[in-house]
Amino acid sequence: MTTLDDSTPAVPPLVIAIDGPAASGKSSVARELAAHLGWTYVNTGNMYRAATLAVILADADPTDESAVLEVIDRTEFTCPVRDGRSVILVNGADVDGELNSEPVNKAVSHVARIPKVRAILLDLQRGIGRSQPSVMEGRDIGTVIFPDAPWKFYIDASEEVRAKRRGLQGLTDSVRDRDRMDSTRKTAPLMAAADAVVVDSSEMNLAEVVAHVRALLASRSFPETGPVQAPAASA
Hints:
By secondary structure, the chain is of the alpha/beta class. The protein is 43% helix and 14% strand.
């Protein structure tokens, strides 16, 4: 086994961290950016949705931590990469088509608040990000999952705009309630990393936000072509 002494700086992961609240547009931005760069797109929110779906299918109460953990402990979650994006499997089954159902939307914040659930999924998320260049989006990528990511963005929008976007998706869950639960949980609360660039998407369409993020990356010496190397870590 090779060991590193304390004087050897860690190598930053090739991860673009994109965080933000529900319906801010972070998923669409991350997906488009990953496709443009040829990097892997990782939607960590789908991992929590998969855990929530497992709880619902087991007829367990998503607000009962003990009941949730009983289900999680007997469920296998794997996250292969297919066609440039991560896919979450529950006991080997692809559940992608069920992750945005109304029951999952209403319960996911309850399940995502549980520290052990987050710890289990954190290992999956870090495994992907350490193994390949990734654009990873969620609510704690830049603060908890990859605090050493060299490129961090926080995509936001007004509550009114996000509620409208949610409605256009046919969803009825409250963005205000989601914001409150996600930002006040004790483990990995929703917040912008101190070194993240905040992008307000309220008055921009998807193409404009992606172009803006690409311009910000370019201003930070991110090469759009050729081999990509993360900025050197500080000693």
